[in-house]
Every structure is written in structure tokens, then in C-alpha cells.
Specification:
globular; Immunoglobulin-like; 150 residues; four-stranded antiparallel sheet; mainly beta
Length: 150
């Protein structure tokens, strides 16, 4: 039987660099301490973005899929768009910049999906939010582009 850990996925933005995300998968019993530490370091948790308790196994890969009013910056290596959970690491996180997108006449709404990719694709958690509220008003009009695949 594969051993799992009870974890939560946390989603933050950087306080001074509002167009970057910081995402961590941490043990559920460490969430409050970890959020306090990251807040002291200048990160802001996106409200209502914490996942429920998830059973995460060693070496489980969690892909981060951006939809709606945020998209990837194509110059950033795709390796940053996932977390591979390793119990030997003190922290399991990634951070990367995003591009905010607004289509004319729409209210920007973003979705961040966290998908397990080890045995098929399973959505573990979703975060829905309005980027302008948390990333400021620096939203550019850009036609939505499909995600690059490797």
C-alpha cells in the first residue's frame, strides 16, 4: 500500500510583485505556521484558496493549470508549473510570474486548477478569483492563447 500524507495546497501572490504566484503543498497540521511564515516574508494568501485535506503520496506530481484571466508567460520553463511532492524536502512549492488577460467587455475571472498527473489526470483543487482584485489593475487586453504543451 502506498503511504500518503494529509496535505493542503496554499495559493499566494507576492505583495510587491503582484503578477507572480507562489504555490505550496504542505502538511495539513503545519498550515497555520506556514501561512504566518510566508506572510512575514511578504506573500499574500488569496482568500478562500486553501484546499481541503488531500491525500498526497511521495513523488506525486501536481500540475498547475491556469485558465481564464491569467495565463502562462511562455518564456518561463514549464517545470515551474508543477510541484512534485517529496517528503525529504522541508517545503514543496513553486513560484512563477503570470500574465493577466482581459477580453474586451468581460469581468476578468481566473481559475487555477491543481491536477494530479501520476495516474491519469484528476483535479485535486480549484481556486476561483478576480485577478484585478489581487493583482492590481495592470491587466492588458490580449486574446486568450491556448496553453503550450510539451
Amino acid at each position: 500500500m502506498v503511504e500518503t500524507r494529509k496535505c493542503k495546497i496554499l495559493t499566494f501572490r507576492k505583495k510587491d510583485d503582484k503578477s507572480s504566484l507562489f504555490i505550496e503543498c504542505c502538511l495539513s497540521h503545519e498550515v497555520d505556521d506556514r501561512v504566518a511564515e510566508l506572510t512575514r516574508k511578504g506573500l499574500v494568501e488569496i482568500p478562500s484558496s486553501r484546499s481541503k485535506d488531500l491525500a498526497i503520496r511521495e513523488s506525486q506530481k501536481i500540475d498547475i493549470v491556469l485558465k481564464g484571466a491569467i495565463t502562462y508567460i511562455k518564456e518561463i520553463n514549464r517545470a515551474y508549473h508543477c510541484i512534485t511532492y517529496l517528503t525529504c524536502c522541508s517545503h514543496n512549492y513553486t513560484s512563477f510570474p503570470v500574465r493577466l488577460v482581459k477580453e474586451a467587455g468581460t469581468v476578468p475571472h481566473a481559475i487555477i486548477e491543481y491536477e494530479s498527473v501520476n495516474s491519469g489526470r484528476e483535479i485535486l483543487h480549484q481556486v476561483h478569483y478576480t485577478p484585478e482584485r489581487y493583482h492590481g489593475s495592470r491587466v492588458t487586453f490580449v486574446p486568450d492563447t491556448p496553453r503550450e504543451t510539451s
